[in-house]
């Protein structure tokens, strides 16, 4: 099969990918925007986005996604649903294997976000994995009465606040003496009657009893929940890049390699902020558009020189 040739391929339709697509379209390019899941990324889990300009009263993550998608459609861009299996170099750029389709592009923006860090299997004990989740959006509506969260960072507390706002009773467990989350989030959780915080608490065996999750702490206390939500960190999602590309990126640093640019959470690690992701996406698009303009200018100069010599 002959790969399709594209201007630019964007992998990931979260804030960074959407912003990059809109900016590339404004620059006269026609990017292909690929997303394997629902567009919006981690914004689906965001209880309140308070630091994105233009929303003085804060905005819920899903509501912001809807606005992003509306602007994307207004720019004439669509989202291709595909699971990217591999990105590698090709003769004239990069080769992207999207499962059922293979494409080539002179440039690729990797805006694939992050994946949740998995809890070691030994920590899950006899727990039925069907009641252990890593994203609040994946928890079935019938399992949202009582939720246990493992983790003490921003994500854990933001998840707790969102779920508590939906009427859930939430217990947050973390092994350190104090949470790593933003103080504002911690205080809000403390002020919320249906959230209980358990510092210095490591949940040991987990088991299912009578359709409920029963957890026992190191001190012998027992807690019961409908489901377990695991929020112990996230890692950059770059496994689909072939080994040579990952090594090039490691050596090149956060700016990436020529023609392949990281944008958003996949680049920023724990600094997962919508404003940063959007800025990364626009900057990546401008770099690609600028590189294309420079190539066209060089080609025009070369042609003019040849014409002058032949005259």
Helix-strand layout with pairing:
Blueprint: E1 4-11, H1 15-26, E2 32-35, H2 61-74, E3 79-81, E4 86-90, E5 93-97, E6 102-110, E7 114-116, H3 121-124, E8 132-133, E9 146-150, H4 154-165, E10 169-173, H5 183-190, E11 195-198, E12 203-209, E13 212-217, E14 222-225, E15 227-230, E16 234-236, H6 243-252, E17 260-262, H7 265-268, H8 274-310
Parallel strand pairs: 1-2, 1-6, 2-3, 6-17, 8-15, 9-10, 9-15, 10-11
Antiparallel strand pairs: 4-5, 5-6, 7-16, 12-13, 13-14
Helix pairs in contact: 1-2, 1-8, 4-5
Compact overview of the structure:
This protein is an alpha/beta fold and 311 residues long. The chain has helices at 15-26, 61-74, 121-124, 154-165, 183-190, 243-252, 265-268, 274-310; strands at 4-11, 32-35, 79-81, 86-90, 93-97, 102-110, 114-116, 132-133, 146-150, 169-173, 195-198, 203-209, 212-217, 222-225, 227-230, 234-236, 260-262.
Strand content: 25-35%
Mean pLDDT: 87
Query: Helix and strand string, N-terminal first?
Result: EHEHEEEEEHEEHEHEEEEEEHEHH
CATH architecture descriptor name of the largest domain = 3-Layer(bba) Sandwich
**Outline type:** elongated
The CATH class of the largest domain is identified as Alpha Beta
Q: How many domain regions?
A: 2
Q: Measure the end-to-end span.
A: 43 Å
> Main sheet?
7 strands, mixed
Helix content: 25-40%
- The Rg value, from CA coordinates, equals 23 Å
Count of DSSP strands: 17
**CATH homologous superfamily caption of the largest domain:** FAD/NAD(P)-binding domain
CATH topology-level fold name of the largest domain: FAD/NAD(P)-binding domain
Alpha-beta classification: alpha/beta
